[in-house]
Amino acid sequence: MAGEKNVQAQDINQLLKVRRDKLKELQDNGKDPFVITKYDVTHHSQEVKDNFETLEGQSVSLAGRVMSKRVMGKASFCHIQDLQGTIQSYVARDSIGEEEYKAFKKMDIGDIVGLKGEVFKTKTGEISIHASEVTLLSKSLQILPEKFHGLTNTDIRYRQRYVDLIMNPEVKDTFIKRSHIIKEIRNFLDGRGFMEVETPMLVSNAGGAAARPFATHYNALDEDVKLRISLELYLKRLIVGGLERVYEIGRVFRNEGVDTRHNPEFTLMELYQAYTDYEGMMELTESMFRYLAEKVCGSAVIKYNETVIDMSKPFERITMIDAVKKYSGVDFSQVADDEEAKALADEHHIEYEARHKKGDIINLFFEEFCEDKMIQPTFVMDHPVEISPLTKKKPENPELVERFELFIYGREMCNAYSELNDPIDQRERFMAQEEAFAAGDEEANHTDEDFLNALEIGMPPTGGIGYGIDRLVMLLTDSQAIRDVLLFPTMKSLEK
């Protein structure tokens, strides 16, 4: 086996040497492709196919990567791949000239070429380009994966996304669709009078979420700073400042593990709207998800992992306590205190920490018994106050808050509040978070004095929400892992 690998390595090294020799020959003859600075592209592959009737017999100019080549004496065929797909070209010696045809025959799979010629259809009915000119624009010095097996090793695919995009057309489609999704989010929110803003990534206090931050040092100020874990606290400052509807789409950073749904840096969108509450956020979310599915997928009824997800109907609504009662049989509205809640956790084999209170136990029950049952779009509402430090309490029950999470296919898609705007209550919540941190909760929030000062200036009643854009893209592109929707996901260094 080792011998076979050595032979393969020698063969590859020889092929790589041949490519470099070809480049040197071109350079020695004054035909270095790397000195070319531009090429006039008039059309792309799919554009030619879609407009064949008007383009037939017309001269067009395309550029792309040679993906296949079949040389047959005085005439050859090749396929080039561009942004829109692939198209065939018929390259004949009598059409491009003897010297140019010799140069074409020496080109390799993976080379980038410019192609000029007339649009025609072959005897087999394939729309093609009858080349009058083929220009080598860039020499590929590496070898693309073998055509029929493609690039299937997922680790290599993620590390070398540029090769993945070349070899797997569906991957390119996913990322084109991702761009379309984000564009339509902006269109939807702009249509509702929201303003897009940008807030700091390097912060002295990384708050707004339960997560461990990445820490770094700011040399110029000789201060330790953190990478933001959410967008919340700065966007709320803007609501205080009178910008009534704001949103931001940006990277946030959480010092946590990597799995099919988590990446340490990911794209979050948060929006805040003055003079509304979490009910308003539910309406906005339901309308936006339906709009995105229709715009991007063509229908509000989509398939994810062979499961039909129907976003055309009103989304289900259930309180967290009712969900726990429904799927575990435990009614926490009848549970008196923390000790009784912990006894129920022991009885149901739910692990918890000594610092956990009744509200934390309710959330642990929900995660264990309920999350994976929420397949169709479901708003889970009215969370315990202990797990919601930035949320308004329900007036009729101060143990709960006006908060919801949207679940689809058992996954949290967003998290929303009627935002806490009482600075005295907020200070008490921060104090409780500081106590939790002291008791060992590394994800607890810290007191943000400037944010408290902003609340004391006065924040109107406000609804706010955060969306995991990557999970939304996963849903709308039927992608099974978050790495499939991140162009360059976090990977462990190969040097370790």
Automatic annotation (TrEMBL):
<feature type="domain" description="Aminoacyl-transfer RNA synthetases class-II family profile">
    <location>
        <begin position="178"/>
        <end position="489"/>
    </location>
</feature>
<comment type="similarity">
    <text>Belongs to the class-II aminoacyl-tRNA synthetase family.</text>
</comment>
<dbReference type="GO" id="GO:0000049">
    <property type="term" value="F:tRNA binding"/>
</dbReference>
<keyword id="KW-0547">Nucleotide-binding</keyword>
<dbReference type="InterPro" id="IPR045864">
    <property type="entry name" value="aa-tRNA-synth_II/BPL/LPL"/>
</dbReference>
<dbReference type="Pfam" id="PF00152">
    <property type="entry name" value="tRNA-synt_2"/>
</dbReference>
<dbReference type="GO" id="GO:0005829">
    <property type="term" value="C:cytosol"/>
</dbReference>
<dbReference type="GO" id="GO:0006430">
    <property type="term" value="P:lysyl-tRNA aminoacylation"/>
</dbReference>
<keyword id="KW-0479">Metal-binding</keyword>
<dbReference type="Pfam" id="PF01336">
    <property type="entry name" value="tRNA_anti-codon"/>
</dbReference>
<comment type="subunit">
    <text>Homodimer.</text>
</comment>
<dbReference type="InterPro" id="IPR004364">
    <property type="entry name" value="Aa-tRNA-synt_II"/>
</dbReference>
<dbReference type="InterPro" id="IPR034762">
    <property type="entry name" value="Lys-tRNA-ligase_II_bac/euk"/>
</dbReference>
<dbReference type="GO" id="GO:0016740">
    <property type="term" value="F:transferase activity"/>
</dbReference>
<keyword id="KW-0963">Cytoplasm</keyword>
<dbReference type="GO" id="GO:0000287">
    <property type="term" value="F:magnesium ion binding"/>
</dbReference>
<dbReference type="GO" id="GO:0140096">
    <property type="term" value="F:catalytic activity, acting on a protein"/>
</dbReference>
<feature type="binding site">
    <location>
        <position position="405"/>
    </location>
    <ligand>
        <name>Mg(2+) 1</name>
    </ligand>
</feature>
<keyword id="KW-0436">Ligase</keyword>
<keyword id="KW-0030">Aminoacyl-tRNA synthetase</keyword>
<dbReference type="InterPro" id="IPR002313">
    <property type="entry name" value="Lys-tRNA-ligase_II"/>
</dbReference>
<keyword id="KW-0067">ATP-binding</keyword>
<dbReference type="InterPro" id="IPR044136">
    <property type="entry name" value="Lys-tRNA-ligase_II_N"/>
</dbReference>
<feature type="binding site">
    <location>
        <position position="412"/>
    </location>
    <ligand>
        <name>Mg(2+) 2</name>
    </ligand>
</feature>
<keyword id="KW-0648">Protein biosynthesis</keyword>
<dbReference type="InterPro" id="IPR018149">
    <property type="entry name" value="Lys-tRNA-synth_II_C"/>
</dbReference>
<keyword id="KW-0460">Magnesium</keyword>
<dbReference type="GO" id="GO:0004824">
    <property type="term" value="F:lysine-tRNA ligase activity"/>
</dbReference>
<dbReference type="InterPro" id="IPR004365">
    <property type="entry name" value="NA-bd_OB_tRNA"/>
</dbReference>
<protein>
    <recommendedName>
        <fullName>Lysine--tRNA ligase</fullName>
        <ecNumber>6.1.1.6</ecNumber>
    </recommendedName>
</protein>
<dbReference type="GO" id="GO:0005524">
    <property type="term" value="F:ATP binding"/>
</dbReference>
<dbReference type="InterPro" id="IPR012340">
    <property type="entry name" value="NA-bd_OB-fold"/>
</dbReference>
<dbReference type="InterPro" id="IPR006195">
    <property type="entry name" value="aa-tRNA-synth_II"/>
</dbReference>
<feature type="binding site">
    <location>
        <position position="412"/>
    </location>
    <ligand>
        <name>Mg(2+) 1</name>
    </ligand>
</feature>
